[in-house]
Amino acid sequence: MRIITSPSEAQPGETVVIRSHGVGDNVYAELEERGISYSDGTCPFVRRIHDIVRRKSSEGCDVIIIGNKDHSEIIGIAGSCKTEPIILEDEGQLSDYLLKNYENSPKTIAIVVQTTYNKNRWKLCREIAAQYSRCEVFDTICSATSDKQKEAAALAAESDIMLVVGGKHSSNTKKLFEICHNICPRTYLLENSSEINAIEMLKGFSDMGDIRVGITAGASTPAHIIKEVYNQMSEKLQNMDEDFNFEEAINASLKRLHNGDRVKGYITAVNNTEAIVDIGAKQTGYVSLDELTDDPSQKVSDVVSVGDEVEFIVLKVNDAEGYVTLSKKKVDAKAGFDKIVKAKEENTVLDGVVTDVVKGGVLAVVNGINGIKIFIPASQATARRDEKLDDLKKKEVKFKIIEVNEVKEKAVGSIKAVLSAEKEEAKKKFWENVKVGDVFKGEVKSLTSYGAFVDLGGIDGMVHISELSWNRIKNPAEVVSVGDVLEVYVKDLDEEANRISLGYKKAEDDPFVKFTNEFAVGDVADVKVVSITPFGAFAQIIPGIDGLIHISQISDKRVANVKDVLSIGDTVKAKITEIDTEKKRISLSIRAVLEEGASEEAAE
Fold first, then answer.
1. Which of 59, 56, 25 has the alpha carbon at shortest distance from 42?
2. From its phi and psi, is residue 451 left (phi > 0), alpha (psi between -120 and 50) or beta?
């Protein structure tokens, strides 16, 4: 491994590692352009700041970054801005800048802070920004950094000597030193064990056994350097007091951890992505949201709170980085699976949420049972095969357990079994109470060429095409669509055939009723020719009502061919000569109108 400062320094075949401080967008672009493979080790907390400044600058906000302008992290953050950011070092510079530039400005400002910034100074910056209504402040100090600063301060308050191990140019190490030195004057910043000057450090102490020595280290300090420091310190103290073994005291206070160990710990901090756990070891415990719960609707704070004592299983021990990855789900899984087995035996209906759509079906979690996902095959996930599995994602569902494998601790569920049972129960209740004439509101579930099927609440009825409209239609889709809610009434029932005929047309909407209310025999109306036959023409009087003009009634002269006199679309005056209410037939006459007109002219 070697260090480079720009992608141009990489040799063919080499892989570039981007360190945790991150880099600007221009570096990624150059790596892609040169075809250089790379591994991105940018800290997730830092990457979050990059995403924030990239988004807010794209939205037109001014971006202010609080931190050291020469620090690699700040340089990378600034490189992710779409516009030129403003970099300020402390609360004084922030106050002056906002007063000068944003006192009366309508512009929105987004403010972020270096992950390793001093928490107390950041608090002052936030108080200043709060005076400006258009300041949007993002609290981007790394929780691990702030927790370590808090823990180091507590340790310094209890110690006679504090050793801060880390690079003298490391920002977070220097901040740890400042915090500890303000509390414990005998605080020393060491890069390695060779810098221990025990004579100077222990000057003035008469009893070595009563000395309390605290050790903390910067985030990037390798574990072997920390170990060398306390080994050397132990040796120095032993030379001065054979009765006190510093290394044994350190090791005795820390438990050894291995993958798969079951441990109890106290929650010390909670953020959006994880919880931080004190497990009584030299490493800090971290448990991600994914290892706390499978419920996508839950946040970390919904599962654990600061101060909770929780049992975990160790997933991974990283001595070099000083952390342990933990899982609560695995602890919950065993207890949860026992409940799943019981639900299968008792045929219990479970409530849960679909979390994933996978090959062949979906995965769901059971409300109140963490750590277990139930596989529901596609054939058991929906009531009908044409329904999409993607529509189930993140939805609350009810299902039964239909199969369990206790050896592999896996289970298979069925949503369809619950839906089918509910449908059968609904059918039973429906047939017990329904009668002809009952009115329902139901959703159109499907359409055919001959009608529409409507869900009446667990059972479907059909509205025949002739019942959908008083007008002549060729397809039900001309009137209704799937998903429409219709008010229908029961026309006929056949329980043996499980058939329900529904009506949708209302008597008051009958065009013939409307016609008879407005017109009578002898009335003259403007009618529109809609079709022509050899024996006459049909003309629309009002929408839905046509009358026949017989060929003998088209003119006051003899007509051999209807088309010689009338065309479809013509509007003519015709007299209503007959209304057959039983057969709903109407006779019209143009000839009668013409003859009456001729008589009036003759009379004049």
1. 25
2. left
Domain range 519-603, CATH architecture = Beta Barrel (2.40)
Specify the range with the lowest mean pLDDT, choosing from 241-245, 419-423, 568-572, 591-595. 241-245
191: annotated active-site residue: no
CATH architecture of 7-137: 3-Layer(aba) Sandwich (3.40)
Span 318-345, pLDDT tens digits: 876 678 999 998 888 777 888 899 999 9
pLDDT tens profile 501-536:
998 876 656 788 888 888 999 999 999 999 999 999
Which has the higher per-residue pLDDT, 454 or 295? 454
Query: Mean pLDDT lowest for which of 141-150, 252-261, 516-525, 545-554?
Result: 252-261
- 499-503 and 485-494 strand pairing: antiparallel
Distance (Å, whole) CA 231 – CA 229: 5
Does position 571 have pLDDT exceeding 90, yes or no? Answer: yes
Of 30, 73, 228, 518, the active-site residue reads: 73
What are 368's two structure tokens? 């109140």
Instruction: Give how far Cα 73 sits from Cα of 36, 60, 147, 453, Å.
Output: 22, 23, 19, 63
Classify residue 51 by burial, with Cβ atoms within 10 Å: 0-12, 13-18, 19+: exposed
Domain range 434-509, its CATH number among 1.10.150.130, 3.90.1570.10, 2.40.50.140, 3.10.290.10: 2.40.50.140
CA distance 322 to 343: 42
Q: Which residues contact 551 (CB under 8 A, 6 or more apart)?
A: 534, 535, 536, 559, 562
Q: What is the pLDDT of residues 59-116, one digit of tens each?
A: 999 999 999 998 989 999 999 999 999 999 999 999 999 988 887 778 889 999 998 8
Which of 88, 12, 86, 1 is closest to 41 using CA atoms? 1
The CA distances from residue 109 to 59, 124, 422, 540, in Å, are 11, 17, 55, 68
Specify the pLDDT at position 368.
Answer: 80
| Topology classification of domain 143-252 | Cobalt-precorrin-4 Transmethylase; domain 1 (3.40.1010)
| AA letter at 368 | G
Strands 161-165, 213-217: parallel, antiparallel or unpaired by DSSP? Answer: parallel
Residue given tokens 């002219």 in the structure block: 601
What pLDDT sits at residue 244? 45
| Alpha-carbon separation of residue 79 from 37, 39, 56, 442 (angstroms) | 20, 19, 14, 58
Q: What is the pTM of this model?
A: 0.37
Q: Which of 143-152, 205-214, 268-277: highest mean pLDDT? A: 268-277
**CB contact at 8 A, 375 and 411:** yes
Q: What is the DSSP string of 225-283?
A: HHHHHHHHHHHHHHHH-TT--HHHHHHHTS----TT-EEEEEEEEE-SSEEEEE-SSSS
SS3 call for 485: strand
> Is 322 strand, coil or helix?
coil
CATH ID of 262-327, from 2.40.50.140, 3.40.50.720, 3.30.1330.10, 3.40.50.1820:
2.40.50.140
Residue ranges of domains in the chain: 7-137, 143-252, 262-327, 332-420, 434-509, 519-603
Nearest Cα residue to 270 out of 306, 307, 303, 302: 306
pLDDT at 507: 62
- The top-level CATH class assigned to 332-420 is mainly beta
User: Does 262-327 match 519-603 in CATH topology?
Assistant: yes
